[in-house]
Amino acid sequence: MQCPNGCPSSMEERKEEKIFHRNGEPIVISDLVMYVCPNCGQESMPLPSARIVENILNGKAKSTGKFTAELYEVSSV
Length: 77
Ligand SMILES: [Zn+2]
Prior knowledge:
Layout: E1 12-22, E2 25-36, E3 43-44, H1 47-57
Antiparallel strand pairs: 1-2, 2-3
The structure holds zinc ion.
Zinc ion is lined by residues 3, 5, 7, 37, 39-40, 42.
């Protein structure tokens, strides 16, 4: 898959942790396959990943646990 920004190298498949919001609540999806451009960092979500996200946001998937993390806001650094 080529980068939409026209970079010469093709995008790499990477598993990432992504935060989404469902009913105003943050949820984390880990090991979500994303395409990332090694040149400019542009990310693109492949269709199977988009389906997974859709299912989770629609409440069709079971959560496997809670994710807690420290929050840092840019304005406080
Ligand atoms: Zn690129």
